[in-house]
Amino acid sequence: MKTEILKVLRESGGYVSGQQLCDSFGVSRTAVWKVIEQLKKEGYEIEAVRSRGYRLVESPDVMGQAELESLIRTRWAGRPVVYASETDSTNIQAKALGEKGASHGTLFVADRQTAGKGRRGRSWESPAGTSIYMTVLLRPGFLPSRAPMLTLVMALSVAEGITGETGLLAQIKWPNDIVVNRKKVCGILTEMSAEVDYINYVVTGAGINVNTECFPREIAGTATSLYIEGGARVRRAKLAARIMERYEENYETFLAAEDLSGLKSAYNRLLVNRGKEVRILEPGNEYEAVASGINDTGELIVTARDGSRRAIFAGEVSVRGVYGYV
């Protein structure tokens, strides 16, 4: 009931009478009062005026289940929300509940991770109260070979969500890093449980540096946050909700063709390396080329210095800018 009352207060834009809340949810005034008091303890500023009712004055930057569910306006993406104030990793928890039958579209969110993981097993710093750590679980009907493209679907959705919510230009460093002003603000990791020709479930996680004020010296040259770049605090739950809205639309576009043909143009417009020299790091081989964008299956198309065009698969190589990270 807390989610529903919070949603009514948020959407009304004014006062909502206690009796109206009682009638809407079939509960007593005491039950409504208890929910209001609970919301106040969580940091919501709610004004109560006799004969007028309750009014939501201000929402805190919290990532609780009620806050997220009251903001997410999708049909299935991010529904339901499973929230933890602290967990090892949202991907780990998503996979554990995936094994127990969690439904398609379930969103797992934590305020802090103790074992955050990035691409190729790298650790991901996950302090509390500043960033977004979330993972969406899917149960698609397409072949397992299509699943790696979901990383790019999420990358596009995160970039669009950041720009839509903050006004900052968020770009993509192929395949799965989101950058603002040429520094990384987000990493994305997709994992899957599958048989040879059948997907049990897929989880795609995103870790986004939102309100982080500073970074350790060793990564400060390549990492940043939305707060550092924009100079303003960002409500994390609103951003997460915006990303889920973009993800639902982008996923359904992907699903229609089971490839990235419908998203390729949008992705390439945000590709920070497009038309620029990059360094391709393959096992035992390194060369420079010019990136031109992705193809329908998400491979990066590059033109080497000998004039040959090549399709680079994300699982095999790394791509860097010739003069640095981007």
From TrEMBL:
Reactions catalysed according to its record: biotin + L-lysyl-[protein] + ATP = N(6)-biotinyl-L-lysyl-[protein] + AMP + diphosphate + H(+)
Entry EC number(s): 6.3.4.15
GO terms, molecular function: ATP binding; biotin--[biotin carboxyl-carrier protein] ligase activity; DNA binding; transferase activity
Classification via CDD domains: BPL, HTH_ARSR
Single GO biological process annotation from the record: regulation of DNA-templated transcription
DNA-binding region: 18-37
Domain BPL/LPL catalytic stretches: 65-255
InterPro entries assigned: aa-tRNA-synth_II/BPL/LPL, ArsR-like_HTH, Bifunct_BirA, Biotin_CoA_COase_ligase, BPL_C, BPL_LPL_catalytic, HTH_11, Transcriptional_repressor_C
Keyword entries, A-Z: ATP-binding, Biotin, DNA-binding, Ligase, Nucleotide-binding, Repressor, Transcription, Transcription regulation
Pfam families: BPL_C, BPL_LplA_LipB, HTH_11
Family: Belongs to the biotin--protein ligase family.
Binding site for biotin: S89, T90, N91, Q113, K184
Functional note: Acts both as a biotin--[acetyl-CoA-carboxylase] ligase and a repressor.
PROSITE patterns for the chain: BPL_LPL_CATALYTIC
TM helices/strands, residue ranges: none
SUPFAM superfamilies linked to this entry: C-terminal domain of transcriptional repressors, Class II aaRS and biotin synthetases, Winged helix' DNA-binding domain
Gene name tied to this protein: birA
GO CC, alphabetical: cytoplasm
Residue runs in coiled coils: none
Protein name, as recorded: Bifunctional ligase/repressor BirA
Lineage top rank: taxon: Bacteria
Keyword Magnesium assigned: no
